[in-house]
Amino acid sequence: MSVSEYSRRVFRLGELDFEYAFWQVLHLCLSPSRVYRNTKYHKQTKNQWARDDPAFLLILIYLIVLIDLAYLVCFQIRGISLLGYIVKDVTLFICIGCLVTLVFWFFCNRFLRMSGMAVESRVEWLYAFDVHCNSFLLFALINYVARYFLLPVIYDKGSVSLFFSNFIYFASVCYYIYITFLGYDILPFLRRTHYLLYLVLPSAVLLLSLCFAGVELWKPL
After folding, report:
1. What's the Cα-to-Cα distance from 43 to each of 105, 212, 217, rounded to whole Å?
2. Residue-wise pLDDT tens for the chain (221 aa)?
3. Burial class (CB in 10 A: 0-12, 13-18, 19+), 176
4. Cα–Cα distance between 64 and 71 in angstroms, integer?
5. Three-class SS of residue 113?
6. What family does the Swiss-Prot or TrEMBL record give for this protein (predicted)?
7. How far apart are CA 74 and CA 94, in angstroms?
8. Which of 4, 174, 177, 199 is most exposed, with minimal Cβ within 10 Å?
């Protein structure tokens, strides 16, 4: 499926399989490896690694809108500013998501892809985008949803709250990296996918450095 066809299907809600998308949301939280095992079956039946439709993407956008509404109400932001924040965050999610997808897509095809295989295989851009969306789900649930319920503890001055706030961000990044690793690890034409897990190390160094510098990775609205 091409990117243009994928984009057009966003507006054909009646053709989207939301039931399967919600199944993936549930199992990404409970057993992400099961989702990727199912992706292997999808490859065998549909001859592509990427999803058939953007239902999962629309669920993520809906989640972003709900998260924004919760934070904006909490910080008493209303009116046109509320709409502006939502449009900005959805736009950033799509733009940054495409950029991150491009980086992983290029890195895997350039450095992790096996050479000399009988059938030439490459990472599909849409599949790389699917992997990003899967990883972002866990990132959002930890960094935004879990953080929301911990605001009374985090939204305070002091080194303990600073460390705790940055640690939540670090944990969400670790989950993002892990889900990303699982997504590329199932591709039989990639090797040394465990290199992706090494991204946790610079993330940990950054966390400690920012804590000692008194810098918080997440700021309230």
Report:
1. 18, 47, 38
2. 677 787 777 778 788 889 999 999 999 999 999 999 999 888 888 888 998 889 999 999 999 999 999 988 888 777 767 788 889 999 999 999 999 999 999 999 999 998 766 456 889 999 999 999 999 999 999 999 999 998 888 777 677 888 888 899 999 999 999 999 999 999 999 999 999 999 999 988 988 888 778 777 665 54
3. buried
4. 11
5. strand
6. Belongs to the unc-50 family.
7. 25
8. 4
